[in-house]
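Thread title: Can someone regenerate the structure for this chain?

I was given the following input by a collaborator and told the matching structure tokens would be attached. They weren't. Posting the sequence so someone can regenerate them.
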Amino acid sequence: MSNLTAILPTNLTALQLHVAFWDFNNDSIITPYEIYHGFRALGFSILFSLGGLLIPVFFSYPTTLAHSWFPDPLFPIYTDAIHKAKHGSDTGIYDSDGHLRPLLFDEMFAKMDSSAAEHDQRDCNGTQKEKEGSLGVGDLLRLHKRTRVAADPAGWSFAAMEWWTTWLLLQRDGRVWKEDLRAMYDGTLFWRIREERERSREGWTQGYGFGEWAGTLWRNGTWKTWEVGDETQAKREL
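Best answer:
Regenerated them for you:
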């Protein structure tokens, strides 16, 4: 983490920082090749990373419009115009220019965190401590349903895929925790995950992969690894 500030670009919006991880050569253009290898660097499987190539198929042209009316057959994503690729039925955490709305982010957790009562902790004087906050699978489903707008099947689909990918990457004890999600929104999380994976054999210890799903389902009859306390989780590959 010590070199993180030196790695991250400066003077970018939160949304630009969110996608900057995939711009390996810092040329403000993300290619399908970079998207695939970016997902692999985060620990996703080959199959999942290949599925990530749908991203430029859908989001290349909206960003290309800032530079040309003509679609580019190479499907580049221009990071300087990434705000033009915002889709409907999202949370609105990013504004129309790609800036983060921290108050709306906090409000989202205040409304959607079904376990807020469990996080109510007080110190020895009875003063309430700050709650970390987290969202479970049910909370994420309710959030997705709450943000859907009429006649927007494309937006519903994009949002569902984004939240599914987020849960696969971030879940700890079956929940997505507030600080991790905040770091994902501002882009710092991706750099941290790659650094941890490169630094140690254990790598990034959060998330949920096929090995865990298959192993826990086979041994315990459930896919919820956090409920059975499996200490011998299979090697994680998302």
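Strands lie at 29-30, 77-78, 134-136, 175-177.
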